[in-house]
Specification:
This protein is mainly α. It is built from 5 helices and 2 strands, in the order ββααααα.
Length: 165
């Protein structure tokens, strides 16, 4: 297999022109007679990211399914920005998930004492807080910003392994 001397793409045997840039490859009968590419290809250099996503999109996706996507991105992405958002997603939405579980077990005790309306109010407030935090954190991550939730951010920084970020 030969390579185009202009763009560096591979040229299979029996092809008269480079499929990428159209430079003549040489006589068809004897196969391509182009020189192997010695330098970088002409054109914009594209460097793939660690997860194949830009940082802001990966940061947004850290919050998509709460702490679940936070764990996934903490494990697969090594960029500090993404790791911070993944860790913050784990801390914030993990804590809200645990609060939801505790609240559901508390339903039994509140129902016995006739305080079912109080349980409903607490559940509504927790649901609204979760929804608002979910939207705000996803939007700020997509904008490339870092919104630090007061109690969760120090824990997230220590989990992410980048306390100076």
């Amino acid at each position: 297999m030969a390579f185009c001397s202009r763009c560096g793409s591979s040229i299979s045997d029996g092809v008269a022109f480079c499929p990428q840039c159209g430079v003549p490859a040489g006589p068809v009968m004897g196969g391509p007679t182009v020189a192997p590419a010695t330098g970088p290809a002409v054109g914009p250099a594209v460097t793939p990211m660690a997860s194949g996503l830009s940082e802001n999109v990966a940061g947004l996706l850290c919050y998509l399914l709460g702490w679940l996507t936070g764990i996934i991105f903490l494990l697969i992405d090594k960029r500090p920005f993404v790791r911070f958002h993944a860790a913050q997603s784990i801390v914030v939405f993990g804590a809200l998930f645990i609060c939801r579980i505790v609240l559901s077990f508390g339903l039994i005790g509140l129902h016995i004492f006739g305080l079912f309306a109080l349980w409903g109010l607490i559940s509504l407030v927790l649901s609204l807080l979760t929804l608002i935090l979910w939207i705000v954190l996803m939007v700020t991550a997509y904008q490339g910003k870092r919104l630090e939730i007061p109690i969760a951010a120090p824990l997230a920084k220590s989990i992410a392994g980048n306390p100076t970020f």
